[in-house]
Amino acid sequence: MSESDSGPEPLAWRLRSIVGERNVLVDEPMSEHTTFRVGGPADLYVIPEDPGEVRDVLAACDEAGVERFVLGRGSDLLVSDEGYRGVIVAVGDGLMGVTVDGTEICCQAGVDLREASEMACELGLTGLEFACGIPGSVGGACFMNAGAYDGCVADVLGSVRVACPDGSLETIDAADLDLGYRRSRVASDGLVVLSATFSLRRGDPEKIRAWMDELTRRREEKQPLELPSAGSTFKRPEGHFAGKLIMDAGLMGYQVGGAAVSKKHAGFVVNLGGATASDVRAVIAHVQDEVERQFGVRLEPEVRMLGW
Ligand SMILES: Cc1cc2nc3c(=O)[nH]c(=O)nc-3n(C[C@H](O)[C@H](O)[C@H](O)COP(=O)(O)OP(=O)(O)OC[C@H]3O[C@@H](n4cnc5c(N)ncnc54)[C@H](O)[C@@H]3O)c2cc1C
Fold first, then answer.
1. Residue (of 5, 14, 74) closest to 46 by Cα position
2. What residue's CA is closest to ligand 1, atom 36?
3. From 33, 57, 156, 178, which residue has the greatest number of CB atoms within 10 Å?
4. Whose CA is nearest to atom 52 of ligand 1?
5. Region 248-255 average pLDDT
């Protein structure tokens, strides 16, 4: 952690006074909090449980001049083996409230997107079926504008409640979030999502369930869900499919240590067991170089890097 006037120890005390003793973990292994199951320790791992705590934790880190990173479910994240010298603000572990008002579902940022999708189905609301297999938090999904099978967060998001970098809390309409392919103002403006309201439509529960079952079947058939990964490792390059380029480059199964390009779906880098973050990074780098050498296309990771 970068030292400042107040230093890390006083900051830890300050954070404990905000979120309570049990919600501040020291040297917490990030392999426990990422779907790749790799990554070294974070200096401090803090779990706020309501929007006010999130705001106060962010302010305490900023005042102490200590770096912080907002974590959802860690399903799109590669943390280095050295870990993170700062504070992980684990929004995805707290903030689990949900309220329903007619066809609108408001989820706090830590709610699992799959659970939001399931809940919508049970309520006979259509629009969130695409999300039934995306293992991220609602906050992370807004950050990434997560999507699958022709649906994405932008299609159903009404508004978000966010903490702004200046410490204010604001409600922003989805139309003002500049949501695009794996892109949003949440990411570009450093906003922290506290909750999101999805505007859905009434639908036939049986049809909703059938579509979700079909999407799950497609995922299970095509994706290596039995192994730790962060889903599609690379963004879709303009005019191409990352998986096809990787396959055509002859890289399926390419392995470094315990990490490899999946033999089931070339777009996934997987942890075969015992991978280090460096192994994963080395596979990513080789794939980028080799695809560029063969096809002149530089693949850009979709996975976020932390602590490198
Ligand atoms: C098996 C598998 C399948 C997947 N399939 C898909 C898919 O079909 N489509 C798809 O889009 N993605 C998919 N993903 C990737 C991933 O689930 C999504 O990108 C998801 O939205 C990430 O959410 P998260 O909570 O895990 O975010 P994290 O990995 O925790 O963080 C990702 C980024 O979001 C930021 N963030 C997280 N929470 C907040 C918040 N509350 N406020 C502000 N910023 C925040 C973080 O700072 C970080 O920069 C898949 C992943 C896996 C492992």
1. 14
2. 140
3. 57
4. 231
5. 98
The pLDDT confidence band at residue 183, using thresholds 50, 70 and 90, is confident
* Architecture category of domain 224-306 in CATH: Alpha-Beta Complex (3.90)
Find the 182 Cα to ligand 1 centroid distance in Å. 10
The CATH architecture that domain 98-207 belongs to is 2-Layer Sandwich (3.30)
What distance in angstroms lies between residue 59's CA and the mean position of ligand 1's atoms? 24
* Domain boundary assignment for the chain: 8-93, 98-207, 224-306
Q: What is the pLDDT of residue 9?
A: 74
Contact 185, 176 (CB under 8 A): yes
Fold designation for 8-93: 3.30.43
What per-residue confidence (pLDDT) applies to 4?
A: 47
Q: Is 76 in the pocket of ligand 1 (CB under 6 A)?
A: yes
Compute the distance between CA of residue 236 and CA of residue 234 in angstroms, rounded to an integer: 6
How confident is the model over 259-271, as pLDDT tens digits? 999 999 999 999 9
CA nearest neighbour of 19 among 89, 71, 110, 84: 89
Q: Would you state the pLDDT for residue 3?
A: 46
- Enzyme catalytic residues: 182, 232, 302
In short, whether 225's Cβ falls inside 6 Å of ligand 1 is yes
